[in-house]
Amino acid sequence: MTFKNILTVIGISVATAVGSVWGYGKYVQTQRAGTQEAGKVPVNYAGFFGNNNAAGPVDFSAAATAATPAVVHIKTRTKAKQVSNNLPRRSNPFGDFFGDDMFGDLFGNQQRVIPEQRASGSGVLISEDGYIVTNNHVIEGADEINITLPNRKSYKGTVIGTDPSSDLAVVKIEGHNFPYLVYGNSDDAKLGQWVLAIGYPLNLDVTVSAGIVSAKSRSIGINSRNGEVKNAVESFIQTDAAVNPGNSGGALINTNGELIGINSAIASGTGYYAGVSYAIPVNIVKKAVADIIKYGTVQRAYIGISYAPSEMSDEQKKEAGVKEGDGVYVLDVPEGGAAKIAGIKKGDFITKVNGVAVTTGPEMVEQVSRYKPGDKITITYTRDGKENTVNLTLKNKAGNADIVKNLSIIDRLGADFENVDSKTAKANEIAGGVVIKKIKEGALKQSRIQEGFIITAINGTTIKNVDDLKAALANIKGTVYLDGIYPGYTETYRYPVKIEEE
Q: Which residue among 84, 166, 167, 219 is the active-site one?
C-alpha cells in the first residue's frame, strides 16, 4: 500500500468519525428540544440563586394592622331632583282660578322626580389633619359626604378638589391626630410582588385582600369616560387582589404597610371581581394631591406631542404611517408646544423622560404627570437610528407655565345671574328661574343665548334659583342644555352650551 493510499484511508476515517459525532449531536439535540439542561442557569437568572431571592412565607398581619385604621368608609347621598320634560310651554287658561298645579300637566308643564341616590366607596387618610384621597367617581355629584373611620367615628366630608383626568379627589374632615398611611414608592413595585387591597367592598366593614402585582403601566381607557374627559392619565398597577364595588378609593399597600396605589377599577363582565383589578400608582397620587390642596386643581404639564397608542391595530398604524421601533412614536408635534421648541419631530421615538426609560404612552404620561408647567426635563429620542437628548420646558394646556386656577363652572359660563323676581315669574307662569343679567367672557358668549333669558331647567333638572343652578352645574362636563324663556314670550327655548375643560 502506497503512502498516498494510507493518507486517503486516514482521511476517510477521520471524516467518518467527525460526521458520526456531529450527526449524533444533532440527533440528541432534536430529542432534547425545549427541555432544560440540569445545572445550567439561563442569563435572566443571573444573580438570583444564592442571594436569598427565592420566595418564602409572607406574614401580612403587621402591614394590615398598621394600615387598616387609616382606610375610611365613604358614604354619599345625592338629593332627589325635579326634572322637567322640556316640552314647549303653553298657557294654562285655568291658572288664574285654580293655580298651575291642578291643570299644569295638561299644558306641557309635566315634571318628574329623580329619587334620592346613595352610594359608598373607600378613601385613604394621608395626613393627621384629616386629608383623604379617594376616586373622583366615588364622590362625583354627591350632595352629602359622610366619612366613617374603622373606629366607628363619623365625620362630614368636604370636597377640596377633584381631577377627573386621573380619577382622583381630595376630601377633608375636621379634627386632629388622625391615623394616616405612609407614602411608598410605586416605581419600586415589581411583578410578582405581594400587595394588599384594603377597603369597604359590598358595603362591608373594612376588608383586606391579598394578591400580587400582575402588570404595570396598564391603560384601559376607563378615565376617558367615552371621550367626556380629555387628557386622561392612566398607568395603572394591575393586581389580582380581590377588589369589588366599594373598594374604589381604597388602599393598595406593600408588605411594609406603605401606600403604593389607590384602587380604582376592576376588569369584569359582571361588575364584580374576576381576577384583575387596577390601582393608580402613588407617585401619580402624591403630585395630584399636593396640587389640589395647594391650588385647588392639578397643575398638569404637557410635552406637546400626540403619540401612537399601543393598542393601535396594524391597519391603523399603516394608515397613520406609524413605523416600528423602540419607544413612543410621535404622531404629531403642534406649533408652540414644548416639543416643537425643543426640535422633536413627527416620526421620532421618545425613549426616555428625565433618564427614565419609557416604551409605551402610559409610561411616558406617568413620568410627565409628576412634573408641573415650567419644570425643565430632558427628553431622549431616536431619529433615523441615532439617539438624541434635548432639554425641554414643560407647558400647561394653554401653552404657558402660569398657575391654572380652579374656576367653577359658573365662572366658566361667564355671566352675572340672579333669581327671577316673583312678579316676573307669575306674569310668565313659571315657578321660578335664574335670569342672565350680563354676559361676559366665557361659554355663554359663544352661544346664541341673549341677556334677559330666564333659565328654568338645565339638562332637564328644574331650576328655581341660583342655588339650584350651582347644584345642577356642579359636576357637569361637556355640553349642557339650558331651557327657559324670554319674558313676554310663550315659547320655551333650548340652548346647547359647551363648557370647556380647564
A: 167
> Where in the sequence is the domain holding 199, given as residue range(s)?
64-79+116-299
pLDDT, tens digit (0-9, with 9 covering 90-100), for 312-321: 788 888 888 8
Distance between CA atoms of 150 and 305, rounded to whole angstroms? 45
Stated as kind and residue range, the H or E segment containing 177 is: none
Q: Is 203 left (phi over 0), alpha (psi -120 to 50) or beta?
A: left
Nearest to 165 by CA among 404, 434, 492: 404
Residue length of the chain? 502
Mean pLDDT across the chain, nearest whole number?
Answer: 84
Residue range 238-264: mean pLDDT, rounded:
95
Q: Are 419 and 383 part of one and the same domain?
A: no
CATH number, domain of 313, equals: 2.30.42.10
Distance, CA of 356 to CA of 352 (rounded, Å): 5
pLDDT digits (tens, 9 = 90+) for 337-396: 999 999 999 999 999 999 999 999 999 999 999 999 999 999 999 999 899 999 999 998
In a domain, 193, yes or no: yes
User: Does 144 lie in the same domain as 282?
Assistant: yes
d(CA 271, CA 184): 29
Options 165, 166, 217, 248, the catalytic residue: 248
Considering the domain boundaries, does residue 426 fall inside one? yes
**Number of domains within the chain:** 3
Quick one: 355 and 455 in the same domain?
no
Whether 257 and 129 map to the same domain: the answer is yes
Angle at 218 between CA 214 and CA 221, to 5 degrees: 135
Q: Which residue is catalytic, options 120, 137, 165, 214?
A: 137
Domain assignment of residue 75, yes or no: yes
Given a contact cutoff of 8 angstroms between Cβ atoms, the answer to whether 304 and 333 are in contact is yes
Q: Are the C-beta atoms of 281 and 235 separated by less than 8 Å?
A: yes
**Phi (first) and psi of residue 112, to 5 degrees:** -135, 165
**Helix boundaries (H) for 247-281:** none
Q: Which of 68-82, 218-232, 422-436 has the lowest mean pLDDT?
A: 218-232
Query: Can 137 be counted among the known catalytic residues?
Result: yes
Shared domain check, 468 and 416: yes
The answer to whether residue 167 is catalytic is yes
Are 187 and 366 within 8 A, CB to CB? Answer: no
Give the closest residue to 291 by CA, choosing from 432, 404, 392, 452: 404
pLDDT digits 0-9 by tens, 458-484? 888 889 998 888 878 876 667 888 999
Is 144 a domain residue? yes
387 & 451 share domain: no
Residue 218 DSSP symbol: E
* 360 and 443 share one domain: no
- Residue 18's pLDDT band (cuts 50, 70, 90): low
Q: Which residue has the cell 409610561?
A: 363
Long-range (24+ apart) CB contacts under 8 A made by 204-207 are: 204/246, 205/73, 205/150, 206/68, 206/71, 206/73, 206/150
